[in-house]
Amino acid sequence: MTSIDVHELTKEYGATRAVDRLSFRVRPGRVTGFLGPNGAGKSTTMRLVLGLDRPTGGSATIGGRPYARHTEPLRTVGALLDAQAAHGSRTPRSHLSALAASNGIPMSRVRTVLEETGLGDVGARRIRSFSLGMRQRLGIAAALLGDPQVVMLDEPSNGLDPEGIIWIRELMKLLASEGRTVLISSHLMNETASFADHLVVLGRGRLLADMPMKDFLDSRSRPRVRLRTAEPGRLQSALASNGLTGIQAEDGRWVIDGVTAEAIGAIAAHERIHLLELADDRATLEQAYLDLTADDTPFAASTTRDRQEA
Ligand SMILES: Nc1ncnc2c1ncn2[C@@H]1O[C@H](COP(=O)(O)OP(=O)(O)OP(=O)(O)O)[C@@H](O)[C@H]1O
What we know:
Blueprint: E1 4-13, E2 16-26, E3 30-35, H1 42-49, E4 57-62, H2 73-76, E5 77-80, H3 92-102, H4 108-116, H5 132-144, E6 150-154, H6 162-177, E7 181-185, H7 189-195, E8 198-203, E9 206-212, H8 213-219, E10 224-229, H9 232-241, E11 246-248, E12 254-257, H10 261-271, E13 275-280, H11 285-293, H12 304-309
Helix pairs in contact: 3-4, 4-5
Bound molecules: adenosine-5'-triphosphate.
C-alpha cells in the first residue's frame, strides 16, 4: 500500500513556522484535496514530502520510505509543483525524453503521456511559446511519465480552460479509481468539491481537518430545507404548530432552518399539504471551508462591512 505519511512534520524558515507538527496520512484509491489559505504551508509540505527541503522536525514518507530512499522515485511518485520548471528552449518531447532516459522509464511513455494530456500535436514545439495552461499540461505529463502509484499536484487547474478543468477532474478520479494515491492542492472550492473524496485542511501550518468530504460538509452545516408548495398559508400554520418558521426566498421557494427534508416531508404528508419540491439545502464546500479557516487566514482583506464596523 503506497500511502503518504506525514508525522509531526515541522519546518521553520527563520522565525516563520511554515509547517507545525503536522500529522496526516493520504491513502490510495481516493482523491484527497489539500486546502488552506495562502501561506498555510501546503507547498512546503509537498516539498518536504518530495525531499526538496529538509524538515526541522518530524518525518514525511511515501510507502513507508522517505522520497530519497526510493530507487526509482519517478516511478513511485509523480509531482507537479511548478509549471514553469521546464526549460523554454526545449520541446515537450525532448523535455520528457530526457526525464525518461535519466529515470529508466521506457521511451514509449513519452508519446503516451503527451497524448493523455492533449499535447500530442505540439510535442515538437518550443516550450517558451506555451501558454500557462499548456505548461500546466506538460507538468502533469511529466508527473505521469513514470506511471507512478502516488500523484501529487499543486494547483493543477491553474491556467486551464473550462475543457481542461473538466479533463483534470476526470483524470484525478480515474487515477484514484486505479488505486493510486492522489493529493491535489487547490484554491478553487467548486473544483475541489467536484473531484475530492477526502480533505486535508491546513491553517498556519497546522492541521485543521482530515476527513471525508461528506463529513466535512455535514460537520460544518446546520440542517436546512428548501421547498416549493401550492399551499403556503397551510404550510405556515403547520410549521408554526411544530415550532418552525419558514421564510420565503426571492425565488419563491421557502427556506426552513434547523430541520431536515425528511421531517418536513412527514409534516406535509400528515397535513396533506401539496409540495411541489422538497430538498435538504447542504452547505457548499466554499461556505464550510471559509467557516473553518476564518481565524487562520493571515492575508484576508478587510471588507467594506469590517471597515464600517471599525
Ligand atoms: N523558502 C522559503 N523561505 C522563507 N519562507 C518560506 C519559504 N517557503 C515558504 N515560506 C513561508 O512559509 C509559509 C508557508 O508557505 P507555503 O508556500 O508552503 O504556503 P501555501 O499554503 O502553499 O500558500 P499558497 O496557497 O499561497 O501557495 C509562508 O509564510 C511562506 O512565506
